[in-house]
Specification:
The chain has about 400 residues and is an all-alpha fold. Helix content is about 85%, strand content about 0%. The chain folds into two domains: about 200 residues, no CATH class; about 180 residues, no CATH class.
């Protein structure tokens, strides 16, 4: 009994620590999603077509951000493991790289927006995207700052700064649009986003000046840090970013009523999906600290998804096809949660390249299968969901087998 009590107490302690770590990150992600909503709020009151302009411009912008997100993940892992870190060097390198990416995007903006050629609002999309790309520079610095705080076990601090960024954006949107500062609402919203991010970076740096991290100037392997960061970023591009882009192209081939079910579920389940990403950050942190995650979190996640599925079926008054897809989609979300755990463990041990190869192969097979379904007129909401789920199961299985093989070799 005493041993059982000790185990129970240890499990509760880890669960509490995990929730204290993941919930602030999850909340920060939810707050960050309000940045886009703020622009939509102001622009939609002027003209409905602005919503499409902003949405289309964000597709390539999100791709650019995916190239930079890896620095935050690597900063988390580096600090959590207690590896040598030189804040100023990482800051300068990230600033230079993000500036080069921004400059390249500005020069090639028309090619990055190839999917909008022929659109009557192409010029407006190009203008908004051009100003928005500048936000990639402060955003990359924000990734470093959030990564450092997560690796230090202080993810709740990032929530405050995320909220501050939204407030800044709201204020600048209101001032610029109300007073017609630049004479174009799209430019005014884009500039507001850049300034909000820049001021949040300055706020972060002011806060970090009071911490040990800001003054750390230990000799470190910069090239290794940047290579790992790139590997981290590629995983995001090959998995989440690619799937979102591919999904959009193929869903237009499905009956609009059923594609609406997909988008409705995606919108409703966004908070649950975002928690999977915060759990990914926890695995990066906890494995570096030799903390074992309790299995009960996966059971709790499954129960939550099943409960939500029952609610959605009742609330949305679904027909049989929609109900079947709902269970397929929620099965996908549960397996995606497990996938984030498996992938995080690869990155903890700096084996991210393996993940990228597997993800790339899976995406190629996924796209090829969808093309075949379209060719033979077999693409539907159900077939799309089953293909997506099947390839995720295969990916998880392959990654688990490789992980076990790596672990076996270490034990030998």
């Amino acid at each position: 009994m005493p041993n059982s009590n000790r185990k129970s107490g240890a499990t509760k302690s880890v669960m509490k620590k995990m929730l204290c770590f993941t919930i602030p990150i999850w909340a920060s992600m939810m707050v960050n999603s309000l940045l886009g909503i703020t622009d939509f709020f102001f622009l939609s009151s002027i003209s409905n077509h602005y919503m499409s302009v902003v949405g289309l411009a964000y597709i390539p912008f999100n791709f650019l951000i995916s190239l930079l997100v890896g620095v935050g993940i690597e900063a988390n892992r580096t600090i959590a493991k207690g590896v040598k870190f030189h804040f100023l060097n990482i800051f300068i390198w990230t600033f230079v790289i993000s500036s080069l990416i921004t400059l390249t995007a500005l020069i090639l903006s028309k090619y990055l927006l190839f999917f909008t050629w022929g659109n009557q609002y192409f010029q407006e999309i190009d203008t908004y995207f051009g100003f928005l790309t500048i936000a990639a520079i402060p955003t990359s610095i924000l990734f470093i700052c959030t990564g450092l705080l997560r690796g230090s076990g202080k993810p709740h601090i990032t929530l405050y700064f995320s909220g501050l960024c939204v407030v800044f954006n709201l204020i600048f949107d209101f001032i610029f649009i109300t007073n017609h500062i630049f004479g174009d609402p799209l430019i005014e919203c884009a500039v507001a986003t850049v300034l909000a991010d820049a001021l949040t970076v300055l706020s972060y740096l002011y806060y970090l000046r009071k911490t040990e991290i800001f003054y750390r100037k230990e000799r470190m392997d910069i090239s290794k840090f940047l290579k790992n960061a790139l590997t981290n970023s590629l995983e995001k591009i090959f998995s989440v970013s690619t799937l979102q882009l591919v999904t959009g192209f193929f869903l237009v081939k499905i009956d609009i009523i059923y594609s609406a079910i997909y988008f409705a579920l995606e919108r409703f389940m966004q908070p649950v999906l975002l928690y999977a990403h915060s759990h990914f950050e926890w695995i990066i942190y906890s494995r570096s600290k030799k903390i074992k995650t309790p299995i009960i979190i996966y059971l709790a996640y499954c129960i939550l998804c099943l409960s939500l599925s029952v609610f959605f079926i009742y609330y949305l008054n679904m027909n049989s096809t929609a109900m079947i897809y709902t269970f397929i989609y929620l099965s996908y979300i549960i397996l995606f949660f497990i996938q984030r755990t498996i992938i995080a463990e690869f990155f903890v041990h700096e084996k991210g390249k393996i993940v990228n190869y597997i993800s790339l192969m899976k995406n190629l097979l996924f796209i090829s299968t969808l093309i075949i379904l379209v060719k033979y007129d077999k693409l539907s909401l159900i077939s799309f969901g089953l293909v997506n789920l099947t390839y995720l199961i295969i990916e998880n299985t392959v990654l688990t087998m490789i992980k076990n093989q790596i672990q076996l070799k270490k034990e030998m």
